[in-house]
Design brief:
By secondary structure, the protein is α+β, with helices and mostly antiparallel strands. Strands 1-2 form a two-stranded parallel ribbon. Helix 2 links the parallel strand 1 and strand 2. The protein starts with 7 loop residues before the first helix and ends in a 12-residue tail after the last strand.
C-alpha cells in the first residue's frame, strides 16, 4: 500500500509465485496494528498457498510473529 506494507493476499501471491524447493521457512512480521492480526495473516497465506497446491508444514514452515514479539529463530 501507500505506507509500504503488503497486504496479506499480495504477500501470499508473491510467495506462491516464488516458492521453490529450497524455501523451507517463511516468517511474517511487522504486522499492522490497525489492519491485521497474526491469525488473519496466517490464514490468508495458508489458504492462497493451498489453492496453488502448496501446504504449510509439508512444503514449508510458516511462522507469524505477534505484534510485540520476536519471531521464531531458525538455524540455517
Amino acid at each position: 500500500g501507500s505506507n509500504g506494507h503488503m497486504c496479506n493476499k499480495a504477500t501470499a501471491e508473491f510467495l506462491a509465485e516464488n516458492i521453490h524447493e529450497g524455501l523451507k521457512f517463511v516468517g511474517l512480521c511487522h504486522l499492522s496494528k490497525e489492519n491485521n492480526t497474526p491469525g488473519q495473516a496466517y490464514l490468508t497465506i495458508r489458504n492462497v498457498l493451498f489453492e496453488e497446491d502448496f501446504y504449510i508444514d509439508k512444503d514449508l514452515e510458516l511462522d507469524v510473529a505477534g505484534r510485540d514479539e520476536i519471531g521464531k529463530s531458525v538455524e540455517v
